[in-house]
Design goal:
With 151 residues, this protein is an all-alpha fold. The chain contains seven helices and no strands. It is globular, with a radius of gyration of 19 Å.
C-alpha cells in the first residue's frame, strides 16, 4: 500500500497510482526535511498530527519561520524557506492534476529565482511600464510578451 503519511490522497482512496502520486510523496519528504517532523505524529496536538495539514495552516497564517527544525545547523534564509515551502505545498495539493510534474519540481528547485507573489506583482508593474515605453518607440515588445506569459 505505501508508507502512511507519504501516500497521495488519490492512491489512498482508489488504490491507483498516477504520475503525480510520487510528486505528493516528494512534497511530504521536503516538508519533513524543513520541519524535522514525521508526516504523521499522534504524539502531537490534534491540529498538528498531519504534517501537511499543519504546514498549510502555519503558512496560511504567515508563520512559516516557526516551522523550521530547531536542530538544523544552518537556518535557511526567509526567501529560501518560503521557496522550499511553496514548492513542497504545490507538490502536496490534494488534487493530483494541480500538482506539478516531477520535471517541473526539479526545475523549480534548480532555479536561482522562484517568483514569489510580490515578485510577480513587481514583474507585472515593470511589464506595464515597459509596455508604455515601447509604445513610445522602444523595442521591447518581445520582452513584454515573455514577461506576461510567465505570470
Amino acid at each position: 500500500m505505501g508508507t502512511f503519511g507519504y501516500v497521495a490522497p488519490e492512491y489512498a482512496n482508489t488504490g491507483l497510482l498516477n504520475e503525480k502520486s510520487d510528486v505528493y510523496s516528494f512534497g511530504v519528504l521536503m516538508l519533513e526535511a524543513v520541519t524535522g517532523r514525521d508526516p504523521v505524529d499522534y504524539g502531537r496536538p490534534a491540529n498538528e498530527v498531519s504534517l501537511v495539514e499543519w504546514l498549510k495552516v502555519m503558512v496560511g497564517n504567515r508563520k512559516a519561520e516557526e516551522v523550521v527544525d530547531p536542530n538544523l545547523e544552518v537556518k535557511p534564509t526567509t526567501r529560501a524557506l518560503k521557496r522550499a515551502l511553496l514548492i513542497a505545498l504545490r507538490c502536496v495539493d490534494p488534487e493530483s492534476d494541480k500538482r506539478p510534474k516531477m520535471s517541473q519540481v526539479a526545475r523549480m528547485l534548480e532555479a536561482d529565482e522562484f517568483p514569489l507573489r510580490e515578485d510577480r506583482r513587481n514583474r507585472r508593474s515593470h511589464a506595464s511600464s515597459v509596455e508604455t515605453e515601447s509604445t513610445k518607440g522602444g523595442s521591447m515588445d518581445m520582452d513584454i510578451k515573455v514577461e506576461k506569459s510567465e505570470s
